[in-house]
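lol ok so funny story. i was supposed to be doing the assay writeup but got distracted and ended up predicting the structure for this chain instead. priorities right. anyway since i did it might as well share w the group, maybe its usefull for someone
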Amino acid sequence: MAEDQGDPRHLDTLDRDLARYSNLEAATAYVARPMIGVGISFVFILFAGIAAMLFFGQESNSAIVVIAACLGAYMALNIGANDVANNMGPAVGANALSMGGAIAIAIVFESAGALIAGGDVVKTVAKGIIAPESMGTPATFIWAMMAALLSAALWVNLATYVGAPVSTTHSVVGGVMGAGIAAAGFGAVNWATMSGIAASWVISPVLGGAIAAFFLWVIKSRIIYQDDKIAAARRWVPLLVGIMAGVFAAYLALKGLKKIFKIDLPTVLLIGAVIGGLVWAVMIPVIRKQSEGLENRNKSLKVLFGVPLVVSAALLSFAHGANDVANAVGPLAAIVQASQSGNFTDAIGIPGWVMVIGAFGISFGLFLFGPKLIRMVGGQITKLNPMRAYCVALSAAITVIVASWLGLPVSSTHIAVGAVFGVGFFREWDAERRIKKARLATPDRISYPPEERARRKLVRRSHFMTIIAAWIITVPSAAILSAVIFVLIRTVMG
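and the output, tada:
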């Protein structure tokens, strides 16, 4: 026996056994990681239910509010997991922010936006899609809102699982529409609103992509392709940063802060112009100082766009929290009001504890499940650097302002992802143009065969098709799922 233990072959067997145990531990840790996220999410949903119970424990219909609070918390988690990637993905993909830094900034600014300026679009979510009076009774309206909330959350959860950034706004819209049709027929739906939302499926990504491509063309033609890149950057970067500052000032005044300050569009544009001009003037000496000693190459230019990109990500998160928190708490607020007073046709008021559930749910969802979609938007569609990510962020803000001016309902997800696609497709077009130009200058230049050129495309076609397909089926899928859930609830509740 002693001999066996001293046998080198025995030691080899022992090493192999230990290796198996080590692999098993690694595999267990890998499997346990997502389970920890699910466990924390479950605890948060439970706390949301307990909070609702504390506020409505004495009410006769408190059970309904508790269930609705849990569903609202579940939806908020999914918004954080899926939607916030649109704001943080470009900055992370461009290496201007680490994943941890992006999550920390997003949590602070998403929560601030939700709590300070949130809830402005709740009325549209809860009342603009279906006619509440068509529901007949408060109970039917409550069941419809619960079905909408659950169906939207399930759909966004599935989209996050497969890695598709979808519009949480459209998910909720589809859920409310499906439940409304199941409850009161097709006549209950405001089809004018729905047709506008359908138009935004095309308008949002195309407009976002076109604006992002335009600014990338400006950066390439005026800075990157110049002989003295640093001198060109000193002229153009302050102006570009000033434009970004002005656009974001207008964006926040128009979308994120209009609940606090009632202002019209001309005033918003004036605010943007004044702030943009001030930032432009301030950035001229800053960029001159920052560019001292930089080498005359593209890599040096990335330094000049880093800070503006981080600031833009924070401001996008604030505005997103202010607007998209309604996707989680809009139906929940409607349920609370209908349960409390029996009134479901008047304007919706949002209790403070409901906004807290939405804000913290978005933050938890981002922290626990957000990195997957952040990586997708930031690096797996097309390669981003600070200049390209700047174009995406600026495009997102400009597109929202233009859409608001035109009165078009748009999706922040469609705009941001459309802008990423726009940057990628512009890079493909520009690369092809330069290859053709070089080929004309040197006819004996070796050209790639068609299959090799297809492989070198700068936008991943598989991701493009997956995302477009998810966008197209979001509203009908959420609507069908919501209608089924509503029928089940009505059957169970009698």
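The CA atoms of residues 21 and 27 lie 10 Å apart. The chain is about 80% helix and 0% strand.
back to the writeup now i swear
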